[in-house]
Amino acid sequence: MPDQICIIGLGYVGLPLAVAFGRHRATLGFDIDGARIAELRAGADQTREISPQELSEASHLALTSNPDEISDARIYIVTVPTPVDASHRPDLRPLLAASKTVGAVLKPGDLVIYESTVYPGATEEDCVPVLEAESGLRFNQDFHVGYSPERINPGDKNRRLPDITKVTSGSTPAVAAQVDALYKEVVTAGTHLAPSIRVAEAAKVIENSQRDINIALVNELAMIFNRMGIDTEAVLKAAGSKWNFLPFRPGLVGGHCIGVDPYYLTHKAESLGYHPDILLAGRRLNDGMGTYVAQQMIKALVKRGKPMRRVLIMGLTFKENCPDLRNTRVIDVLRGLEDYGLSVDVHDPHADPAAAKASLGVELVAEPAQQAYDGIILAVAHSAFIQMQESDFRAFGGEDAVLYDLKYILPPDASDLRL
Description:
Elements: E1 5-8, H1 14-22, E2 27-30, H2 34-41, H3 52-57, E3 61-64, E4 75-78, H4 93-103, E5 111-114, H5 122-135, E6 144-147, E7 166-168, H6 173-184, E8 191-193, H7 197-228, H8 232-239, H9 261-271, H10 277-287, H11 289-303, E9 310-314, H12 330-339, E10 343-347, H13 353-360, E11 373-378, H14 383-386, H15 390-394, E12 397-405, E13 417-418
């Protein structure tokens, strides 16, 4: 019988992995949040990544929040978040806490695989010492580690865990082959075996750093074209007629990947005495986009001679068709408007009202009032919003309300402002 696997952390990354393995081999899903375990046992997933049917089909999957119950596993896969703190420094506390949990039950011959996004070297330099200290075992003699960076795209129903090529690596060539074979059990798209753990770590962190820089470029272009009175989307469509033009669009850059991962790489670079100018410049520009959007709305209201009283923001989550609020930059738009004394309502059919209140202090409105707003901002391209017409959005505003389309939901002439 195959070795039992234990997945540490059952969020957007860990749960799909636990369900995939749980379809055909003994798998234990562990999360410190007892309420999360109770929810999953009841067949519900608040992240909406896994359906009740998919949970029921994982017949070999058991769930627990008790660390004493994970000691029988031989393979541990760590999928906890790796955020940044208020100063944009890597916050490894969840990762190191998970390593302590695993280290306390680690046995000779066990394998620990990390999926959390980190800077190159973190697995072997930060996590392995914790495993050794907690277990009393020796790395690469008594136990081994692997690294296979997560590539989950929350809210994407077309590209899921089995459909995305998985990068794999291990602390020895034999372990790397073992890790690679393990993921091939559940990833039909195939794997890419990296030559070392550090290469796999670096590959993950530059995936989103590259996207961050490209979005920063088009955000800056949008600011320039706005001053020229040129429609940015029209320019990008024209440029996109060339085969090798990259199809990036301007917007707010949040979430737990693009808006976070570059800071892991810049932190490591600075610790080695190198100042990463381009990476940090892109981060500064993208982090300032919420304030820019708020200022554009204020200017439009002033030019139109509108009273600046009340604005509606459509969408709060960090991306479309997803309930995830982590590091959403829509909050920057909201705070920027409030700084000018405006009252701001937020409507989002995907966000959980309790989570919005607890994590962001935002009271969501279930149904925006008609003819009540001086400005409306389309901030997230949820499917429900895409299906709406210009008249539907205009109905929320008073006479001559300013309609700001951040996501190109409407035709070019249907809104008053676009990025």
